[in-house]
Design brief:
Radius of gyration: 16 Å
CATH topology: Glutaredoxin
Largest sheet: 4 strands, mixed
CATH class: Alpha Beta
Number of helices: 10
Number of strands: 4
Structural class: alpha+beta
Strand order of the largest sheet: 2-1-3-4
CATH architecture: 3-Layer(aba) Sandwich
Order of helices and strands: EHHEHHHHHHHEEH
Number of domains: 1
Shape: globular
CATH superfamily: Glutaredoxin
Helix content: 40-55%
């Protein structure tokens, strides 16, 4: 069975715009997904990336136009300047890690609902109540916000080291079992094409 390691941050607007297309690809191609939330700021610091506030105005302006264009193209609700961004990505990341370990629900639904809460619903995904609601909607025990703290923190740190070692430099970033790397929500079709070819 094909494997996809998915590196992302819940604060990434481009990861939000991926929607549930990765999950649809995995279902069609018989692939499994391992969700690996990372501290994107730390990834940037170690791979030569530039945080948004330190980019040139030209790059900031282009990003703003591109995000709005992509959201419109994908017919997704999107707020370029959400009320609660940036916020602390750790609580939502820990919840995803704990949910994946616990099982019983849909991690893809959880991941997308957290990003949608930030980018379309004006909610603070560092707020415990918001995270619990997303867990419950995805079929998980909301109490994972407490019980999953330690393993969440440890795995979150390990995901960062692994991401840097494997060549991740942004989000969303997808790596297949045969080490093919795809960066950006606009490369999901290419990822599927590769899985199709590899499966022949």
């Amino acid at each position: 069975m094909a494997q996809i390691d998915y590196y992302f941050t819940t604060l990434s607007p481009f990861a939000y715009l991926a929607g549930t297309r990765l999950e649809q690809v995995a279902a069609r191609q018989g692939a499994t997904i391992t969700y690996k939330p990372v501290d994107l700021g730390a990834v940037f610091a170690r791979t030569g990336g530039t945080p948004l506030g330190q980019r040139s105005q030209a790059r900031i302006d282009y990003r703003a136009q591109e995000l709005v264009r992509q959201a419109k193209k994908l017919k997704m609700a999107f707020n370029l300047k959400p009320a609660h961004w940036p916020t602390n990505p750790a609580p939502s990341s820990y919840a995803i890690i704990a949910a994946q370990k616990a099982g019983g629900g849909d991690v893809g639904v959880l991941t997308h609902s957290l990003m949608r809460a930030c980018w379309a619903e004006e909610k603070d995904i560092a707020d415990d109540a918001v995270v619990k609601a997303c867990l419950e909607q995805a079929g998980f025990d909301p109490a994972l916000t407490e019980s999953g703290l330690l393993v969440g923190a440890e795995t979150y740190a390990a995901n960062l080291e692994e991401a840097v070692a494997r060549g991740v430099f942004g989000a969303p970033f997808y790596i297949t079992g045969d080490d093919q790397r795809f960066f950006g929500q606009d490369r999901i079709d290419d990822l599927e094409s590769h899985l199709q070819e590899a499966g022949r």
